[in-house]
Amino acid sequence: MVGAVIVRGEQILVARRAAGRSAAGLWEFPGGKVEPEESPQQALARELREELGAEVEIGWLIGRGEGTAGDRALHLDCYWTRLLGAEPAGSTDHDRLEWVARTDLRGRDWAGPDVPIVETILDGAVPRFRAR
């Protein structure tokens, strides 16, 4: 699995899983599954197009979170990401999208695999992108 920590200035996009979805009501960084023929970065760009209708630039890996979904072990690699075009107006998998300050990541009910990424960001990790 891959996730996007989408940054806009000093804010980060967070998403709440919609009712009827696995992990409904929990907050997460948007993303999804890596298909066999894809790199993690290709998968993340595809998932964000499908889920949010967003075109993005994928930056450096932040870290890996781990958790479970039922009896499956999940590994979530999260990348710094920034929008290349319009901001997403909605999501196919989420009932809320919010731009929040880094400190506002605290106090949300996060999906398990996202928790270590939130902690890394709160510990001061800074967005990193390749030079253009």
Automatic annotation (TrEMBL):
<keyword id="KW-0460">Magnesium</keyword>
<keyword id="KW-0234">DNA repair</keyword>
<dbReference type="GO" id="GO:0044715">
    <property type="term" value="F:8-oxo-dGDP phosphatase activity"/>
</dbReference>
<dbReference type="Pfam" id="PF00293">
    <property type="entry name" value="NUDIX"/>
</dbReference>
<dbReference type="InterPro" id="IPR015797">
    <property type="entry name" value="NUDIX_hydrolase-like_dom_sf"/>
</dbReference>
<dbReference type="GO" id="GO:0008413">
    <property type="term" value="F:8-oxo-7,8-dihydroguanosine triphosphate pyrophosphatase activity"/>
</dbReference>
<keyword id="KW-0479">Metal-binding</keyword>
<dbReference type="GO" id="GO:0044716">
    <property type="term" value="F:8-oxo-GDP phosphatase activity"/>
</dbReference>
<dbReference type="GO" id="GO:0006260">
    <property type="term" value="P:DNA replication"/>
</dbReference>
<feature type="domain" description="Nudix hydrolase">
    <location>
        <begin position="1"/>
        <end position="122"/>
    </location>
</feature>
<dbReference type="GO" id="GO:0006281">
    <property type="term" value="P:DNA repair"/>
</dbReference>
<dbReference type="InterPro" id="IPR047127">
    <property type="entry name" value="MutT-like"/>
</dbReference>
<dbReference type="InterPro" id="IPR020476">
    <property type="entry name" value="Nudix_hydrolase"/>
</dbReference>
<dbReference type="InterPro" id="IPR020084">
    <property type="entry name" value="NUDIX_hydrolase_CS"/>
</dbReference>
<dbReference type="GO" id="GO:0035539">
    <property type="term" value="F:8-oxo-7,8-dihydrodeoxyguanosine triphosphate pyrophosphatase activity"/>
</dbReference>
<comment type="similarity">
    <text>Belongs to the Nudix hydrolase family.</text>
</comment>
<keyword id="KW-0235">DNA replication</keyword>
<dbReference type="GO" id="GO:0046872">
    <property type="term" value="F:metal ion binding"/>
</dbReference>
<dbReference type="InterPro" id="IPR000086">
    <property type="entry name" value="NUDIX_hydrolase_dom"/>
</dbReference>
<keyword id="KW-0378">Hydrolase</keyword>
<keyword id="KW-0227">DNA damage</keyword>
<protein>
    <recommendedName>
        <fullName>8-oxo-dGTP diphosphatase</fullName>
        <ecNumber>3.6.1.55</ecNumber>
    </recommendedName>
</protein>
<keyword id="KW-0515">Mutator protein</keyword>
